[in-house]
Write a structure and sequence with these properties.
- The chain starts with a helix and ends with a strand.
- It is built from 6 helices and 7 strands; from the N terminus they run H-E-H-E-H-E-H-E-H-E-H-E-E.
- Helix 3 (71-83) crosses helix 4 (108-120).
- By secondary structure, the protein is an alpha/beta fold.
Length: 192
């Protein structure tokens, strides 16, 4: 995984990281949408796993997951699976809901998956009491403020203000390293 390894072997601060926030565009923007059986989605999940593995190797132990449908949920499930393995026993998952009831309109299967993640995470945080866009923004701000780096799943096109753009701006203001994963191509790049 050269994209992070190069930074570590160069003696830079990457090896000092302890926590990572994960953010993503909504899968409605992805070519495969929410269809997890598609090859593109499977590739994205593999890339997330690879990035989390490399970050863990570099010292990251706490991962902040946002509790939204799509990448947040998939990332949480990947991290839960990793933690079941002996070599990732120190991995911590912090689930950050945007606001109470944000999942009320979800389908039953997705709500059950989120409930399972909530029951098995190490810490649960309510990012905001405010329903709507402000609650999502406060959730994102909480995660980025507590992180040493950011993993962002996003394409190269801007489509107006979004949670990912806000997270990237917050990360830039804090001078956090960012690992970008393109949802459709699976390409990974590091921004310092």
């Amino acid at each position: 995984m050269g994209y992070i390894e190069k930074k570590v072997s160069g003696g830079d601060e990457m090896s000092q990281f302890y926590s990572c926030a994960i953010t993503s565009q909504r899968p409605t923007r992805f070519k495969f949408k929410y269809q997890e059986y598609m090859t593109s989605c499977k590739r994205l999940k593999k890339r997330l796993h690879d990035v989390f593995t490399e970050l863990y190797r570099c010292g990251v132990r706490r991962f902040y997951v946002g509790g939204a449908l799509g990448v947040d949920l998939w990332a949480g499930e990947i991290l839960l699976e990793m933690r079941r393995q002996e070599e990732y026993q120190e991995l911590e998952i912090v689930l950050v809901y945007p606001f109470p009831g944000h999942d009320e309109r979800w389908d039953p299967k997705s709500r059950e998956r989120l409930r399972h993640l909530k029951e098995n995470c190490d810490q649960f945080v309510m990012g905001s009491k405010i329903v709507g866009a402000q609650g999502y923004w406060e959730r994102t701000a909480y995660m980025v403020e507590h992180a040493d780096c950011l993993v962002a799943v996003c394409d190269d096109e801007t489509a107006g203000p979004s949670g990912v753009e806000a997270a990237l701006q917050m990360a830039e203001a804090r001078k956090l390293p960012v690992v970008l994963i393109h949802p459709d191509t699976g390409k990974i790049k590091m921004q310092l």
